[in-house]
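Your task:
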Amino acid sequence: MKLFSICTAPAAVLKDEWFLKTLRDDWELHIVDLDDVPQGNGDYLSREWYYCIRKKFDILLDAIAANPDGIIIWADIDIQFFRPCAGIIRRCLQDRDIVFQRWNRSGSEINSGFMAIRCNDRSRAFFKAVSATDFSRRAFADQDAINDLLKAGSPPIRWGVFPRTFYHVYLGPAPGRIALHHGCGAPPPGIRDGRFISSIEHKIDQMIMIRHQAQTPWWRHLLRRLRRTLLCP
């Protein structure tokens, strides 16, 4: 499989210290370093954030056209891996064109930060429609546009969602057999203890927390919950 992503200078630490160091699959990597991004920290809802999302669809459409009948992966660079994912992806893609991360535990909306895509006319038409949408002022940008198109059923696409093991924090507690963690849902940038904390720094804090949780034996989590229960009045 081929994996596509983008990276900016502020996000290089995510790519080098988390994404690449934890990758468990032998995928062919196509990570585009964007040198022409508007200056900034890459913070959520910033001008450079929207710029990167626009670039994402230029890359995706070119990749779909260049890999007919193949399977490609889109992965945001704020992802860490815990075990091989290729087998799960192939099973989830059976009879489907695109598989997304879930957005929450109970709803039907998707998260667009990690996608497996079958390169065909349906997926190309779908992402062309997403790219043609003006999402420059929407809170979740392309994700909002994708969810609108999926609800409308046009363009037609066969889609599904990954299990919770393709995890982010809006899915609740981290599962025991976590496959990957996408660092969305981190606090917005702002001042903490008299210092400005960027979106990237918040994501790294979350990455550390989830890796610690995943590497802690299940019985320690159970013991901690029991202690909290016993200490409650």
